[in-house]
Structure formats: structure tokens, C-alpha cells
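input
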Amino acid sequence: MSIGYYLKKHYNEPTAAAISYGVSGGQKKETVLVYDLGGGTFDITVMNIAGTEISVICTGGDDQLGGKDWDEALMNYVMERYEEEYEEDLSEDPEIVAALYVDVETWKKALTARESVKISVNGPAGRFREELTREKYEEITSHLLDRTKNLLDDVLRVAEKQGYPIDKIDKVLLVGGSSKMPQVATMIERDYGVIPSLQDPDEAVAKGAAIYAGNQKQFSDFVLEEASRVGKTVEEIMEDNLQSGNLDQKFMNASGGASNAIKISITNVLSRTYGIAALDDNNEMTIFNMLMVNDKLPASHKESFYTHSSNQQGVALDIYESRSTVIIDSAKKRVIEQGEDDLEGLPKKKMPLIISNIVFVVMVIVVQILLILL
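output
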């Protein structure tokens, strides 16, 4: 029995961004770190690039951290300053709060290009004006930048364990609209001694995904034509290609070596930890993590569990995801698949039944998550 999801292909944003920066073509051999600070999420990925082969080394981040948090910090500062001036709490007026959210985003973006911006707030008690400097803004939001640095340090420690210390990282790419804030580049250069590259941060991910999709479409069409020409199935010639690589070379030669005909190959890792909920020896609900963050894909893990009571005939399997790095974890996780009697018709037995070989398989990131009972 199996339950799960299926998508055609799914790669994380930093991988797509790396393609759009042009680091995946030709004969380049380099290690790249992508720092992706968007509006609502923060992702970091270290990847090794050798020619057209992209191999993700490790990944990390926080899916609850992004530009919106910088807006929130500035919003709180402005409302505190207004209350200091007029002894009026603006947070009680939803219309003013809604207008302020628009304003603080405008001020934040202005401070990316300018050293200061004039802010103005209309409230019931009067108008508040102040010149906000970039230095003050960075002070207000320093705790958020520190969070990204701590997460970056975590990823770099994992990368170093795998043979890629910071001095072996050739390029740092800044992706996502929020990475345009000067404090980001300043922090990376100051603390890591690397000058990051900021290029098309708003559209890098979308362009990279489009480049890869186009590349895969061209290659798929070529494979179909080649299979028809030699009288073999697609599966047969792809199996042959795994051994020889001849098909990849023919594809490039057929297009005259054009850059858009280069066969891009990506080896990925899990960006999350996946597990299931079960009762532990103390009869407490616990998360048993089956596949861990940064496991190389494809990945699989097998465990045996038991039914909880005699004559139990059904089991609900809830799949959880997190960034946990421990096998057994009681911390709250996000449920990505709610089970409802996924296993039915189990044989009645007075003693607990062994449910052997629960196999947890992920082929490509969230491409296929299967629970199979053998």
C-alpha cells in the first residue's frame, strides 16, 4: 500500500538561481553558496559545480524568516516612536496599521538605495515625522540579520564536514529581493571575507527554472527521436546512457554545442527531515524521523513498528517534515500528510502485530514520498 505525492520535477530555489547565474554551463568547476532571502522564506544552499554537473552539498534556512520580518521590525519601531511622541497606540486602529505596512515596505526599499529616508505617520493625535537613517534601520533589524548568519554558520559547518570549508567556496550568490539590503552583503564580506555577487535577485529563480525546464524539454524530445531512430524504447536507451554517456554527447553534437543544448544534470539533497508519528516506550507520541535533512537523493530508510493494542485492525500514518537533525524528536512538526486509517484490514491478534518494513522513500525533493508495507 502506498500514499503520497507526485510532481514532475521539483528543485529548491537556490539551485534554480545558480542555473540562472550561468554557473552551470561550459567547463566551470566551482563551489557556490546561494544565500536566498525572499519575502517570507530564507534558504541557503552550497553546491559543487563541475561542468554541467550540479551536485548539492548541503542546504538549510528558515521557512518562517524573510523580508516580512524586516517590515514588522520597522513597523514596531515606528509605532513605538509615535506612542512616545503622542502617547497614542496606533496598533488599535486596523486602517492605520494596514496603511503603515505599505509605508514601511516603501521606506525599507528606499533605504536600500539611500542613506536616509523621511518617514511620516498620520495618526489620531497628529502627524509624526522623522528622518530614518540606514544605520538606525540596520540597528532595528540586526537581530534578524543575526538569525540568517547563525543559519549560514550551521550550513557552513555541514559543508566543512563534507570537505568544503569557506575558503573553498568560490562564489557567494545573493538571491531574493530582500538580499538587496546592503546589510546582507556587508555582513558576508565582513564576517566571511567573501565579496558576494548580487545579480538579478528578483528573477533569478524564475529564470533558472525556465532554463532548466527548457533544457529538459529539448533533451526529452531528442531522446524520443533517438529511440525511434534506433528502434529501442526510451527506457532502453536511457539505461544505455547511464553506462556510456553517449546520448548526452550526441545531444550536444546535434545542436552544434549550443549552450542551451548542454545536458544539465542535478544531484540533490533533502532540504527537510521527514518522519512519522508513533508511540514510544513511554506511550508518548513521538516523531520518528526516517530521512534526514541533507541526505543525498534518492534516499530510503526502513523501520519496523508495532500495533498499539490487541486486535487493532487499522493504523493512521501521519507524515511530518521539519529541519530536525535528530532521529527521535518530540518537538512539534508540520504535518504534510494526515493519515486516516491508511492501513486497514490488519489481522486480529491478541498480542501487538509487527508491522514490518515501513519503507520511506524520496526520489527527488517532494517528488515522491511513499510508505510501503511489505
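quick obs: Residues 15 and 85 are 48 Å apart (CA to CA).
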